[in-house]
Amino acid sequence: MEHLKEPLIELIRLAATNLPPDVEKALRQALEREEPGSAARGALETILKNVELARKRSTPICQDTGTPIFYVYHPEGWSTRKLRQVIEEAVAEATKRSYLRPNSVDSLTEKNTGNNLGDEHFPTIHFEEVDGDTLTVDLMLKGGGCENVGAQYSLPGRVGGGVPAGRDLEGVRRVVLDAVHKAQGQGCSPGILGVAIGGDRGSGYYASKEVLFNELDNPNPDPELEKLEERITEEANQLGIGPMGFGGNTTVLDTKITGLHRLPASFFVTVSYMCWAYRRRRMIWKDGTAVYK
Amino acid sequence: MKKVQIPISDDVVRSLKVGDPLALSGVMVTARDAGHKWLIDTFVTRKREPQGDDLEVYEALKKLLNGGVIYHCGPVVAGLDTREYRFVAAGPTTSIREEPYQGDIMRHFNVKGVIGKGGMGAKTLQACQEVPGLYLHAVGGAATWIAQTVKRVLGVYKLEFGVPEAFWVIEVEDFPVVVTMDANGNSLHAEIEARSAKVLENLLTGEKS
Questions:
Q1: What is the pTM of this model?
Q2: Which residues does UniProt assign to the signal peptide (chain B) (predicted)?
């Protein structure tokens, strides 16, 4: 597995320093929607200059390089124990090279380990065995600001000033808008919403992050969810929170929703808020060569 | 964009208002959760006895923070091995976590400016009126861009808190911020929250599509 170390460091470097093209495009479109001379437009201009500079200099887009979250799709027979080991080595080396900030802190002693390695949950690695002989590694770097404004609702419930949210898509719409309002500019808006309907408390959060890997331009395979995604994005933007919470026309860039089977008794809606610095990359490893997307 | 030199005088603080874009130059200190808690517990409420180099660091920070600026930032720093520190990425972190501490720290040290993102609450706004001081919003996530304005890292205190949590003393030139809370009791964050709450109410109670 040692041969995977450098390609994995490159995956981390790309994720930390180079925004995916679909996200950059959405930010440019957002810029056009804001009033010339407004603080919102100024913020987006700075964001876009920062993105270009980070790419050119190969330095992190955001200083909070976040929790590294890996989704590993491996062929049959690969050792996940050894894969974990090489991923951890790559994370520690990427930290040394200043692609990542040392972010892993022991919750009890408050000591920073200095290398982004902690217990088996830091970095976060999900493994899944797949058909074929290709290894795919998806990486998301999720900063603390946006992670902190994520939310989970148990329906039926009430939101805003006591408005009921029922166990249906209308209830979903209501709680997601509530989450966007509560986040204000703190999650580094304009953000992207990853929403999971159903599941349990754990699987809901897992899926709400997983759905964020879908490219912004990809429509939802379920037409009803696609319609809901568009409506939530449009209505969230009516809130006028705007880039950084300065006010303005773009509060979220996009919404991604997925549905999970659930227990009859439970109806969770889980929202993962992703900041505009939507750092995700994919490495496809086949026949000894890495391709990055 | 108005140019403002650190330390900032009371007159300058009072003349600035919500919405003003500024370019800051001078020396500022980074501080986050561990730093704020340590300052409050050890020197403001005195819940804990100073130990190790605590008093030495306190004296140094007192000079830097008088009329000075606190930056809510956990930077990516290169040169840790050789102590030739260089800021690689240094955008603002979410400020609201410091809401329980910030006002008291501003009063204790005569801090004129707090830089962060996302805004702060009523306690800090009150301190901005009393000290007087300002809350200054930097663009969240724009870390490489902002790091360019950090000309030199002058030193670091409490590195044992970890790289993101240490007090980094930095010299900046034309550091870009927007005033979002001023010394006259105005807060852009409170305003936007109230305005968006009204829209939300309409969206929640509006007709189903």
A1: 0.94
A2: none
